[in-house]
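Human: Not sure, check this?
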Amino acid sequence: MGMTQIVPSSYHQTPRLYVEEPLNGAPFAMSEHHSHYLRHVLRLQDQALVRVFHVKDGEWVGRLETIGKKGVVFHPLELLRAVPTIDRRIHLCFSPLKKDRMDFLIEKSVELGVSDLHPLLMRRSVVRDIKADRLRAQIIEASEQSERLNLAQLHDLVSLEKFMAGQVGGQQDSVFYAALERHDCASLKDVVVGEGAVTDVYFLIGPEGGFEDSEVLLLQNSSFVRAVSLGERILRAETAALFGLSHLV
């Protein structure tokens, strides 16, 4: 069976895990966390098939072997998919949300294929920090379940002003959309139709309660920002994010 970018149907039900160990065709001992999960949660036995993937080395299928009382060794059998070249990165820029809504946003944006997550502090941000380790764990879990071969990058929490200053007038071959509610802007779905080839797409949504006037001015005065509308309705932050991503990925 040759390598493909689509997982063969015979492996659809095979457990799939992200690993940090290099996948070079050689057996390796799985982490304590993965060993526990495979043996005591999934209750897999020796010779059970498992899929693992690495952000640089692709996705492999292999068999398990128990060592000692706690350890598990992964014996690779076949490379199923190599990591594809990413032609375009999709950046979601958002204000931190309350727990359940944040969980939903992270999970669904990863499933949709977002490459970069930029949490930004804004004047009306209700939540003022993030649990980075917890969010990274959610990114990994969503990637495992959605058959992704890479992980979305979670960037540090910074203020909107600092983030915008770091754009340095816009990057070459990139486009920056800001969803401004209650403003006369072109529809996002109409704007993206005419876009040429770009390597990075930034999509910014406001916090609960929307942008403050000073933030709107900051965005409007940034020459590289394209203000867009998401329609007549006022959407919750997580809904706005996913609506926008559905037009950009």
Residues 89-248 form a domain with the Alpha/beta knot fold (CATH 3.40.1280.10). The chain has two domains: 9-81, 89-248.
